[in-house]
Structures are given as C-alpha cells and as structure tokens.
Design goal:
Blueprint lengths: L5 H13 L5 H8 L7 H13 L3 E6 L2 E6 L3 H15 L3 H10 L3 H19 L2
Antiparallel strand pairs: 1-2
Family: Belongs to the BlaI transcriptional regulatory family.
Protein name: BlaI/MecI/CopY family transcriptional regulator
Keywords: DNA-binding, Transcription, Transcription regulation
C-alpha cells in the first residue's frame, strides 16, 4: 500500500466525501473549484485509480460511475500499518507517534483500544 499522488489524493477525497458513486464530470466539477484541470486529466487519474484497484466503476447510461473500494479510514489504517511494519523498532515508533498526539487524539486512541479489547475478549 502506498500513499496517493497529489491529484490522486484530491480525487479520492472527492469520492470519499460523496459517499455514493459519482461520475468523472462530478469529480471534475468539484476539483475545478480549487484549481484549473482538464476533464481528460481527471478521467485519466480516475482510470488509473480504477486499474490500481482503488476505485470500482460501473456503466450508468453513457458514462461510468465510480466509487472507492475502501473507506478513508481503512486507507489511513493501512498506511499506519505499513509505516509500523517498516519502522524497525515498533515500540519506539509508537512512542514517537504518541508523543505527537493531542489530548483528544490520545482519548480517541484509548477509546478505540478499549473497544477493540472488548471485541476480541467477547465482553
């Protein structure tokens, strides 16, 4: 798993925000509010994301609609897993990560750990 390029990330953010299948035209319209992009550029990026397995597409009328294969949260979790695996010393990596957290993030982590522990212990 790897991170996305700048335009790939912008496209994925649009798909995740939409929460439903979208056309290239819809993504192009949203992205051109922020920057000047050709329709064919967005089409090419979305086709590449489809070929890489990040997007699914299905025909709808004369166009295709696209939707993300994973959620934004699943993607983020995969990136964190990859970083942890590649880090060498997992404990030190986690300690450095914790040192960068806000109190709210630490509380969210504590809550997630509690939920996970209840799930795996069945309590």
């Amino acid at each position: 798993m790897q991170g996305f390029g700048e335009l790939e990330a912008a496209v994925m953010r649009q798909l995740w925000a939409a929460g439903e299948p979208v056309t290239v035209r819809q993504v192009h319209t949203a992205l051109t509010r922020e920057r000047d992009l050709a329709y064919t550029t967005v089409l090419t990026v979305m086709d590449k994301l489809h070929r890489k397995g990040w997007l699914r597409r299905e025909p709808r009328g004369r166009a295709h609609v696209y939707h993300a294969v994973t959620t934004r949260e699943e993607h983020g979790a995969g990136l964190m897993r990859e970083a942890l695996t590649d880090s060498g010393d997992r404990e030190q990596t986690l300690l450095h990560f914790l040192g960068q957290m806000t109190l709210d993030e630490a509380a969210a982590l504590r809550s997630a750990l509690n939920t996970y522990e209840r799930k795996i212990t069945g309590s």
